[in-house]
Design goal:
Strand content: 15-25%
Number of helices: 4
Distance between the termini: 59 Å
Shape: globular
Structural class: alpha+beta
Strand order of the largest sheet: 1-3-2
Order of helices and strands: HHEHHEEEEE
Number of domains: 1
Helix content: 25-40%
Amino acid sequence: MTNDRPYTAVLDRLRGVGLRPTRQRLALARLLFDGRDRHVTAEQLHAEAEACATRVSLATVYNTLHQFVDAGLLREVVAEPGRSYFDTNVEDHHHFYYVDGGMLEDIPGDQVALSSLPATPEGTEIDRVDVVVRLRSRNDAR
């Protein structure tokens, strides 16, 4: 079956999680969910939108990304203070963070093993564990 409208897949995805398909959400979802997993900052997505002649403010990009996270369409990965990436892969996995280049790379969930976790405070339960392994280039001159 083929989709005769370019936005059919993202329309279905947004409606499937109860989000109203506004023009901005549709445009940003189409950029994000192009069939490949990716990690993007709000600023990167804003620049992509502008390059496609999609008029949207940076604040709207941030709001939309957080709505997508709340709806389960994206995961937010805080790589360092003030530096968040939005991940289209919402399956169980972890990340390498390349400090020198500011990039994330997926680590399959089964490649990280934790032997124990602390007891949670009363009235809470663990939602998910995110491991970010920070990498830097070796300095061969040491």
